[in-house]
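Recap from last week: sequence in, structure out.
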Amino acid sequence: MMIKRSLNIYVCLVGLSMFFCFSCKKLINIPEPITTTTTTKIFSNDSQASSAMAGVFTQLINGIDGASQGHSGFSTGLSTLLGSLCADELTYYNQGPGWYIYNTNKLLVEDSYSYTIWVTTYNSIYGANDIIEGIQASTSSKLTASVRTRLTGEAKFVRAFSYFYLVNFFGDVPLALTVDFNKTGNMTRIPKAEVYKQIIKDLIDAKSALGADFASSKTGERIRPNKWAATALLARTYLYTGAYAEAAAQATEVIAQSGLFQLKTDLNDVFLMNSTEAIWQLQQNPSFEPHRNATPEAYTLLPNIATVGEYPFRISDQLNPVFELKDKRKTDWQMSRVVNGKTLYYPYKYKIGMDNSTVGNITEYYMVLRLAEQYLIRAEASVLGSSQLDLAIADLNVIRHRAGLDDLPATLSRDEVIAAIEKERRAELFAEWGHRWFDLKRTGRAHDVLSVIPIKQPWRGDYQLLFPIPPSEILNNHNLSQNPVY
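Predicted structure tokens:
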């Protein structure tokens, strides 16, 4: 969203559907593209407008230029990879440039992965802004009121979702709510608290605009955000901003939808397509190479049988002790491999990766929002907001039961409940969307936890808890400042 290269929007016809691939190298100073989604043609009827919105979701799962790799976009697995390496969840075996600088928290100001996070989040934001403005500008009677409302709600959800990851990786960022480069060309960074206000506003709007079922995907699949996806992300955002009563209330609304959402009793079923635990998933294209029917994240993380020795990404020595002896999350969500006499563990929440991916026959979608997180949000909000320890313990026990663990005692102190919440979040949400990385930062625990980890020595400083703003962005927009120390 901030830069002086043109935003190219390609309109691709696939069968009878049309979708957009937003490819922008720089994102705020953007000359008016020759083809934009705000043309009368694109938004002249329900079908074309819906296809345009479908293109935004296609971009989310495919990343930069449709590369479909686990490191080609913030929503194709890169948030998980970078967040888990920067935190204490994954270890990267190979010393050298690339992933290793995140694992050791020795980030460089010039790095392609943090740049990719920046570019792809702003690509999604511009795609969402195009939809919002295109619908507003359209005077076609064939673009019905119900579709206008739904697509605008979906676009505002995507914009909020994208900004959530931007502020958690970079801190203060430019807030672009239009594709008009005359307004966005020289934007400055604004405090993340102000960005959070816009995220909350967009999610409230989306919640009121979107339906309460999954009918918008036509097939009834959980691949388009609905009212409950907006509510779930709103609960998380309220938790992050310290609005604990609101966080608990939003999480309770989602949990109460037992007709739509239930925790899967078998952990191996949680990440399947259209799992009852899924609030929102992204659907990969099984014909795209190289990942095919594998989720892009699993394609990158799951060990390849052909690899001799240690596979690059493994569970860290700091994470594994978190799991209790009977914890099914250790047995069902990790796979092991013996290398040089040592047992190493790897994330195994998704079962289809590089080795067993095929064209077609999708069984897993990429999980973005799921029900278990809502119990954890409500537990934390209950403690921090109103000191309702009994309610928090009850929610934690729901998650523990599913993992095969005993109840926590009702006699836990407030500090012990807070520690238990952190532990359950680590065990439940490991290697998912950077949760642990964000948790450590928002709770003020990052320095104490991370600065003593052997692989991160010497600790360069807490400034690396934020990623560097890409220097090329600053070069093209002198109103844009760098994060401290970089």
